Amino acid sequence: MLPRQGVTPELARFIVDTKWDDLPETARHEAKRALMNFFAVAIAGCRTQPVELALRTLGEFSGGRQATIVGRPERIDPLSAAFLNAAGANVFDYCDTHLPTVVHPTSPLAPALLALSEIRKVTGPELLLAFALGFEIECRVGGAISPGHYPKGWHITSTCGVFGAAAGAAKLLGLDSERTVWALGSASTQSAGLCECLGWPAKSVSVGNAARNGLFSALLAEKGFAGPPEPIAGAQGFLAAMGEPPNWAALLDGLGKDWQVTNNSIKPYAAGFVIHPLLDLALDWKRDHPDVAIERIAVRGNPLLLQRTDRADIATGREAQVSLQHCVAAALVLGKAGLDQLTDACVGDPAIKALRAKFECSSDDRISTIAAEMDIWTVDGRKHALSTQAARGSSSNPLKDAEIEAKLRDEAKRWEPDHDIQPLIDAVWALDRSEDVSNLLSLAVPTRR
After folding, report:
1. How many Å apart are CA 283 and CA 278, to the nearest integer?
2. Has residue 449 got a pLDDT over 60?
3. pLDDT score of 445 more than 90
4. 199 contact partners, CB below 8 Å, separation of at least 6
5. Other C-beta atoms lying within 10 Å of the C-beta of residue 319
6. Is the pLDDT of residue 86 over 70?
7. Average pLDDT value for residue range 7-22
8. CB 244 within 8 A of CB 377
9. What integer pLDDT is reported at residue 1 of this predicted model?
10. In whole angstroms, what is the distance from residue 316 CA to residue 321 CA?
């Protein structure tokens, strides 16, 4: 790759110069939807083992108590809170997805900005603008190295999420262009995350670090911690190190016009998004054929479907999140696709385990990541041919606002049935009118009676 000077400064100027009035209403609303979904998935993940163990570990070394951990009474320092809230939001793979890159943008981004809002005065419009800008930067950096980055084994949510957290935090801190470049430089040298860790608690380390290190990078830059002038596109910068021919158009074209947050997808199911079209088909078929026994199943999808989720032989609920065979089998047996279907007990269910062995899987690059085809042969000799072009929750078939609210209410009820989550819902929708968002996270902590 030939180095190209001026790329990071151009991105930095965009971050610095963009004002609230430059952000379209559609982007503002999508930012609110993404934050609403963040609270749902962070509440769902706040008491999982990875969060428990990470909190226990970080708590031994943290003297700070300024920041909130979503869904928990404990308080900790802001950098650790950013780590824990990002890990919790992503642990179930239930977070939003930017389909062109398969980045999960909000998990590493929102925790960094929310932690900062507890130690610096931040208004609602400032939060939403910083969020939209961070979302823009991480997805554009992801677009520059897609589609080859993810299949090589890089966990793109982590490798690119650190840029989003740094960019958004730099905006909230009011950094100038030079210091924003420095923030992006410190972020670029901390970019990391491997897909080999998917399905294991270790996945949460790089997602948590993306939030923590992005915030840390911006705080360092604020103090004058300098970096190279071209960390993204320099001769030995991020793009060169990743070894992909850069897609410059995805990185730079349409800045300030084509907002990436408007191309967001919010999940109705806690599983890899490439599995979602299959889950739509399975749940609809099960509803219409509640008592029909299945002989075998053939699924066809985008190559990414098989690359990441062709895992019939699994043993844990964590692995189930990225197993198309398990998720679809559970949907066909139980007629459900919730968190209860991603437990060790469900993985060991004899009927589901037997059905996982009856899959034939193939890929077709003409099928998009939000589409799928599935043939089901039943024991009565019939073949049922199913297909969908746009999974529920995708930007082509988005969830309604009320459905995202319902997702938050459902997870809040599972987490703490007596806690009233409505004030949090109201506060998120009213962010564009808020003068101070420092209490937003407190609304996601149950009140003990």
Report:
1. 9
2. no
3. yes
4. 311, 314, 316, 318, 319, 321, 322
5. 18
6. yes
7. 98
8. no
9. 66
10. 9
- pLDDT (tens digit per residue) in 247-266: 999 999 999 999 999 999 99
CA 195 to mean position of chain CA atoms: 14
Q: What is the mean predicted confidence (pLDDT) over 400-426? A: 95
pLDDT at 282: 98
**Which residues are registered as beta bridge partners of 98?**
103, 264
Flag whether pLDDT at 240 surpasses 60.
yes
CA distance 339 to 317: 9
User: What is the band of 371 on the pLDDT scale with cuts at 50, 70, 90?
Assistant: very high
CA dist 189 → 24, 46, 103, 109, 350 (Å): 32, 29, 19, 17, 47
pTM of the model: 0.93
